[in-house]
Design goal:
Length: about 375
């Protein structure tokens, strides 16, 4: 018998388990949207926008079709134009930077801190030019970026700040919710995110009413009333079904976040002595919400294959840092330009973490890592 089959398989995440835990409420919410045909805009969307703004400590929420659109919409509303430069971290999901280009500006990459994976404020300060208009810090994996240092650079140079909170719903920096530091914050409700819809969905939050109105306009064909198009916009809508699902899930987010943190703490304890493994570093004053639990290992690919053979799913977030992707070859960057992002891209590995994870799942992952012999070819 193949001993690998004796292990409990561990999925990277289990969206169905989450659905089962709240099935009656979800089913009822979906049925109500169908009964009232409130598919586009309407009461479910308006209700979720109000609830989400309140939960994120913002005065306004503008919902849209997905997290990527929210970044694009915000940058257009912030007035990005050709010739402008926008600084974003070198190690993130491509949404963060493809939308800078779409909005018409030039992407300027900033190296990440080697241990927290978030924007390095010292490098940020060195990248500012007279053409720089804004910064897009990413609270990557769920750990807040160093917002005091980033905001200090932004204030010194009068730059706008758009926080990419796609992985960091309810994370806190020095006790304050992420998304409340910059001019606006972008959220994704992609199904696997800490707050996930049952399809694509996204939102922006801000405390600036004029910015909120411009963002809403851009998301809705450039006008807030039918037939009244002040500018050319796009069609990017949160639909009623997704809004109703998100309203059911939002009250559970604090408890789900707490579960993620407990699982991370247990990983931290039980993996502390695993040879060759570097655990996620938590910088002072940050509350991490562990969208991802990203470890590092010199034999990352062999470790991932070993765990995969045991039925334990892992993911690499992200195997090629943004400046080294074909999409950014035009910028002509080399590994020496972003030494930390380059170092981390070949070492990071995200272990399974989701609120419904059982003690048996945890034990299987921990045993799987303990049985990895880095010297033996996998
Ligand atoms: C998921 C994600 C996005 C975009 O979200 P979508 O809803 O998938 O468009 C943006 N930035 C980061 C860092 C993300 O992880």
């Amino acid at each position: 018998m193949n001993t690998a089959n004796a292990h409990l398989p561990v999925p990277f995440a289990d969206l169905h388990a989450q659905y089962l835990s709240i099935q009656p409420q979800i089913d009822a919410a979906i049925a109500e949207v169908i009964r009232t045909s409130a598919f586009i805009r309407g009461p479910f969307v308006e209700r979720f926008e109000q609830e989400f703004a309140a939960a994120m400590g913002a005065a306004h929420c503008v919902s849209c079709a997905n997290g990527t659109d929210s970044l694009y919409i915000a940058m257009r509303a912030l007035g990005v134009k050709p010739g402008d430069e926008v600084i974003a971290p070198a190690h993130s999901w491509i949404s963060t930077t493809e939308t800078i280009t779409q909005a018409g500006a030039k992407v300027v990459f900033c190296d990440t801190d080697r241990d927290t994976f978030t924007m390095d404020p010292a490098h940020l300060a060195a990248l500012v030019t007279p053409r720089t208009v804004g910064v897009v810090p990413v609270h990557l994996y769920g750990q807040p970026a160093d917002m005091d240092a980033i905001m200090a650079v932004a204030r010194r140079h009068a730059l706008w700040v758009l926080e990419d909170c796609a992985q960091s719903h309810m994370a806190r920096y020095r006790g304050r919710l992420v998304g409340t530091f910059g001019d606006a914050a972008s959220f994704s409700f992609y199904p696997g995110k800490n707050l996930g819809a049952m399809g694509d969905a996204g939102a922006l939050t801000t405390s600036d009413p004029a910015l909120a109105e411009r963002m809403a306009m851009i998301a809705r064909h450039g006008g807030l009333r039918k037939g009244d198009h002040q500018i050319e916009g796009i069609n990017s809508r949160l639909d009623g079904l997704q809004a109703a699902v998100l309203s059911v899930k939002l009250p559970h987010l604090p408890a789900w976040t707490k579960r993620r943190q407990e699982i991370a703490e247990e990983y931290n304890r039980r993996l502390a002595d695993a040879p060759g493994l570097t655990l996620p570093a938590l910088a002072g004053g940050r509350e991490h919400v562990y969208h991802l639990y990203a470890v590092r290992h010199e034999q990352r690919d062999a470790l991932a294959r070993h765990l995969g053979a045991l039925g334990i799913q892992t993911v690499i977030n992200y195997p090629v840092a943004l400046p080294f992707l074909p999409a950014y070859r035009r910028l002509g960057h080399t590994s020496a330009d972003f030494p930390n992002a380059f170092h981390n891209q070949s070492r990071v590995l995200s272990l399974p973490i989701f609120p419904e994870m059982t003690p048996q799942h945890m034990a299987a992952v921990i045993q799987g890592i303990a049985s990895f012999d880095a010297d033996k070819p996998a």
